[in-house]
């Protein structure tokens, strides 16, 4: 009898401990909303499913086409990348996505690069590697070599995030995430321009004016006054081994949503409001009421967690956050980018290039007289047999900040017979020092696109998506030991 009493006493203690544990862990969430089906929203759905398991309902809202700013345009029956077009070989999330989804990839074709300053080509690539090397040394000394070493050092620090996320560590702000990767180096880069950053690192003014400026103008349609971190990300695109998805990069988004078993809801989210609802077991629970417009009219759904995966910027999304204190408002404006696709014969004399001109990509330096940022020959997203036509008769993609007038097209082309235009609000208008928007907009509302104020890229969105999947899970279950931990590099060495 004494044994039974003792057993019961132990059982009571264990029951009490379990009850306390249950209070600590709370009940599991049942519904999560993701607003936006671009690379950020689709990868968020994928990572949320991995973290929360198969029983949770995930709804992805999209007002347009799946893919967001990963989109294609049609030109004479062929599709061409109009948004994010290339992926770096060290972008491990994107590499994992295409592997898991079984998507084939392709490498960009060979190109001949020229840099145009509005009057002449200040740099012009040759077919011969040795000649290009001599040109680079003559014009820029060892700046190219130093740049590759400088970018490699940045990428070494950047790669730490994959290890942190593998061990389920998350960050409650973009600043803390970047600091965990690169310490004060990354934090400092956010607050100075890429021009100041390159000068401090010892690069020549000519190199900054020609190479760095041209790279910023083609990748972000902005100059060397953007922040040093996004500038370094931009320069990494000069690396070798870049790739794209066969059939279009947007296939990653549709594949991730399918793999996540999320429900795709075609509709425009109009507002989010916190509501208190009674529970069957007694008491109340706080949920988020998400209102949206669909083809059948206004609709409303309730969610435990809401993830905003679209820029909260005027002209991009007009979501109203009702009765939140402090109020949730729009953040920084986004840069207009116009992508103009032209099938025609390029006017080589405009660039001072002798016919036949072997240039297939022309970048530009910062000259206010120039009405375009770059022009380059592009291939369809689906690989085809090589055309027998000369490069001048290919489809060309022109980036500019304003739509091109007919007389401007006539300057760039001797003749053309097809034009297609895609107008974007593509990336934030970078102007350091940068103030990052919060990741946590409210108790259980998360802003995935906060990271774009540091740098806008496919992989940055995927990193933010996984961080928010981890962060929302840890905060729901109060696992504070996995949030904003310091000295993770040393900690992980000891854990291993």
Automatic annotation (TrEMBL):
Major location (coarse): other
Span of the signal peptide: 1-22
Subcellular location: Lysosome
A molecular-function term among this protein's GO annotations: prenylcysteine oxidase activity
Domain Prenylcysteine lyase: 123-485
Enzyme superclass (EC): oxidoreductase
SUPFAM superfamilies hit by this protein: FAD/NAD(P)-binding domain
Catalytic activity: an S-polyprenyl-L-cysteine + O2 + H2O = a polyprenal + L-cysteine + H2O2; S-(2E,6E)-farnesyl-L-cysteine + O2 + H2O = (2E,6E)-farnesal + L-cysteine + H2O2; [(2E,6E,10E)-geranylgeranyl]-L-cysteine + O2 + H2O = (2E,6E,10E)-geranylgeranial + L-cysteine + H2O2
Name of one Pfam family that matches: Prenylcys_lyase
Source organism, top-level taxon: Eukaryota
Cofactor: FAD
A GO CC term attached to the entry: lysosome
Annotated keywords: FAD, Flavoprotein, Glycoprotein, Lysosome, Oxidoreductase, Signal
Protein transport listed as a keyword: no
Biological process (GO), any one: prenylated protein catabolic process
Keyword Cytoplasm: no
Role description: Prenylcysteine oxidase that cleaves the thioether bond of prenyl-L-cysteines, such as farnesylcysteine and geranylgeranylcysteine. Only active against free prenylcysteines and not prenylcysteine residues within prenylated proteins or peptides. Involved in the final step in the degradation of prenylated proteins, by degrading prenylcysteines after the protein has been degraded.
Protein name, entry field: Prenylcysteine oxidase 1
Organism, scientific name: Leptobrachium leishanense
Gene it is expressed from: PCYOX1
